[in-house]
Amino acid sequence: MHKSGASSSAKLIVMSPIGVLRTPFKHAAGTPVQGVSGRSAEGVVELHAEYVAGLRDLAGFERIWLIYFLDRASDVQMKVQPFMDTTARGVFATRSPVRPNHIGISVVRLLGIEENRLLVADVDMLDLTPLLDIKPYVPAFDSFSPSLAGWYADKSPSGVVADDRFEAGSFDSEDSN
Amino acid sequence: MHKSGASSSAKLIVMSPIGVLRTPFKHAAGTPVQGVSGRSAEGVVELHAEYVAGLRDLAGFERIWLIYFLDRASDVQMKVQPFMDTTARGVFATRSPVRPNHIGISVVRLLGIEENRLLVADVDMLDLTPLLDIKPYVPAFDSFSPSLAGWYADKSPSGVVADDRFEAGSFDSEDSN
Predict the structure, then answer these.
(1) Is the sign of the CA dihedral A49, A52, A54, A55 positive or negative?
(2) Distance CA A151, CA A94 (A)
(3) For chain B, N or C: smaller number of CB within 10 Å?
(4) Do the bridges between strand B42-47 and strand A13-15 make them parallel or antiparallel, or are there none, so unpaired?
């Protein structure tokens, strides 16, 4: 949960997981830092039954966004040393999980849909991560080739895996098993 | 807020806005359906002061992700008729705001940073939308050219604007002015 000093005037927003992500990664150490890290790991999106009607037409997409809650991230930090770098960076200039609100976004390949289960590839989330949303990957909205990519410009995620530097306790392991 | 029948066993997730988005769009009607709709509208991200340290190194990126709460979306629907289509689609196969948890993601161009204010272009959010996260746009993670883009394949957002079909009341207009 978000524990840093939020504005007291800001209203809180309450979200409810729509499902859970099943992946081969039980702990941060060894998990790909992004789905493109080269392992093509497969996973399963287990959507809660009441949302299955919302999957209609999704099968026509090759890639989809998964938006999820980084439930095992340690507390919020404004400066972080990313897995792909040796220098501390502002958290908003990284994809580190220790960001405010702990929201993660990942593009995965959609391999198939069976009722409430989506088989996907290129996963980089921890097993049992709470799912918040699914969106289609639409090149016209999402695909850009910026000429400036900051400190990532000369870095490659290929083969890079995480360690436990950003990992804390589990959010809901007791009722997700 | 999410009002559909969430699993009672799922734990709720509480988020706190990290800032607010200022844009030219006061109502859904007439707002671009995506930043790429062709208007290149400019906006300002007003980050709460306690998060400014997290902006370090962000200026080197040409494009950034804004992740925000679609606070004026009407209640959750599993089938929607998107602005760019004439057929009802499953909500997860669209970018409609009436999705569970009401999370929006948009790529914007970063024009400049002045203390807690980010000047951005290609905005498609309503004015005073609560901001949840900022991430760098990293082509290696985010830029793909899928061969299948579902029902979007033969659609173009160019010039398409929204109407009020998904709009409800305001989330926090009374304390954001």
Answers:
(1) positive
(2) 9
(3) C
(4) unpaired
Residue B39 CA to residue B129 CA, distance in Å, equals: 19
The percent helix, strand, coil of chain B (3-state, each to 5) is 15, 30, 50
d(CA B35, CA A83): 31
Q: Which helix (H) or strand (E) holds A89?
A: strand A89-90
Q: Is B174 exposed, middle or buried (0-12, 13-18, 19+ CB in 10 A)?
A: exposed
**ipTM associated with this complex:** 0.87
pTM of the model as a whole: 0.87
Interface check for A17 against chain B (CB to CB < 8 A): the answer is yes
pLDDT of A176 higher than 70:
no
CB pairs under 8 A between A and B: 294
- Residues 70..109 of B with a Cβ closer than 8 Å to A: which? 78-79, 89-95, 99-101, 103, 105-107
Single out the residue of B120, B146, B94, B38 nearest to residue A143, CA to CA: B146
Instruction: State pLDDT tens for residues A57-82.
Output: 999 999 999 999 999 998 999 999 88
- B69-84 confidence digits (pLDDT tens): 999 998 899 999 888 8
d(CA B63, CA A40): 26
